[in-house]
Write a structure and sequence with these properties.
The protein is mainly alpha-helical and 331 residues long. The strands form 2 sheets. Strands 1-2-3 form a 3-stranded parallel sheet. Strand 1, helix 1 and strand 2 form a beta-alpha-beta unit. The chain is globular.
Length: 331
């Protein structure tokens, strides 16, 4: 099973509940590969110091949240050069029409400006994403609704290359639906997903937020105009808070809902805030500890990259051989 996130100092509650916490639960059940996609981050202009710090912080968050280097492989994408190598090969097998139809390119391109001003990396990065997946012969890939199109392209490319080269070079990846998870919505616009790029920072709970910041954001959360929580047909904002509590307590949203029927929304907001604070405080504290002395992060990054490199090289050696490229010399 393989998954990754872009390096950022703005990982949020949705990232934690929708992805990272599931990784922690699944690392003992699957052969897991997790990484920070710092090469993907280059599709947008980055401040070098911030990118470096954000990559460290992402890996620190993995560790603080409970990923165990003894149970899974995690690393920084740029530390394994085969990601870029396979991305170039797959780009040569990808049609411009396929890339042009990718909805994320359309959305992000529209935000950046005219088509001529958008970097080519934003156009071709689905090939890099496909390389990330196929390089490790991944069977399962957890993806959200907005990423399913990318996995479909990855499957098309795997089939295309396998057929063209007459070999089963790549495993066909499947969508993985975690046994538990949560789709966390914006606190202020509960019909939209919680997002690091939300213009209003009060809508998002960041893993780096202080206890006071978390409490203040939940106090401002959109709920409903009724005098008390109803037995059914509650508003999206109320459902969102039920979902957050349920995910953190390990119960169903319906169970949380029934415990609040007839109570006022203020109790729901404050109690949800308290549960989130108790969950995120130790993660935040551990991240800051790791960031003060990065020697442990460097050690785990080196170890993880070494394990990933062995697997990635095995795939690339087969690909290059089937393509007819000359054997590489050790230098």
């Amino acid at each position: 099973m393989l998954s990754a996130v872009q390096p950022t100092n703005r990982l949020h509650l949705g990232n934690y509940l929708g992805a990272i916490r599931n990784w922690v639960n699944l690392q003992s059940q699957y052969d897991c590969v997790f990484f920070a996609v710092d090469l993907h981050a280059l599709t947008l202009r980055q401040d070098p110091k911030e990118l470096r710090d954000n990559t460290y912080r992402t890996i620190a968050t993995y560790l603080a949240a409970g990923l165990d280097p003894a149970q899974c492989t995690f690393f920084a994408q740029s530390h394994v050069p085969q990601h870029a190598e396979l991305a170039w090969v797959l780009t040569c097998f990808t049609g411009m029409g396929e890339l042009g139809r990718m909805t994320q390119f359309k959305d992000k391109g529209a935000k950046q400006g005219t088509q001529d001003s958008v970097g080519a990396g934003l156009f071709t990065y689905p090939a890099l994403m496909a390389a990330d997946i196929l390089l490790y012969q991944s069977n399962l890939v957890p993806v959200g609704q907005d990423q399913k199109q990318h996995l479909e392209l990855t499957r098309d490319l795997a089939e295309r290359v396998n057929k063209y080269l007459g070999a089963d070079l790549f495993t066909m990846p499947e969508v993985f639906i975690p046994p538990s998870g949560a789709r966390i919505m914006s606190l202020l616009e509960p019909t939209a997903k919680m997002s690091k790029s939300d213009e209003n920072g009060q809508a998002t709970i960041f893993l780096s937020d202080s206890d006071d910041e978390i409490k203040k954001k939940f106090k401002r959360a959109v709920t409903d105009s009724l005098p008390a929580i109803a037995d059914k047909d509650v508003a999206p904002g109320v459902t969102n808070l039920f979902q957050i509590q349920a995910a953190l307590k390990g119960v169903t949203p319906e169970t949380v809902h029934q415990s609040y029927v007839g109570r006022q929304y203020g109790y729901l907001k404050l109690e949800t805030a308290d549960i989130v604070i108790e969950t995120l405080r130790p993660i935040r504290t551990k991240v800051e500890e790791l960031m003060r002395d990065k020697s442990a992060l460097d050690y785990h990054l080196k170890e993880g990259a070494g394990k990933a490199y062995v697997r990635a090289k095995a795939t690339m050696d087969k690909v290059y051989d089937k393509l007819g490229l000359l054997p590489r010399f050790r230098v």
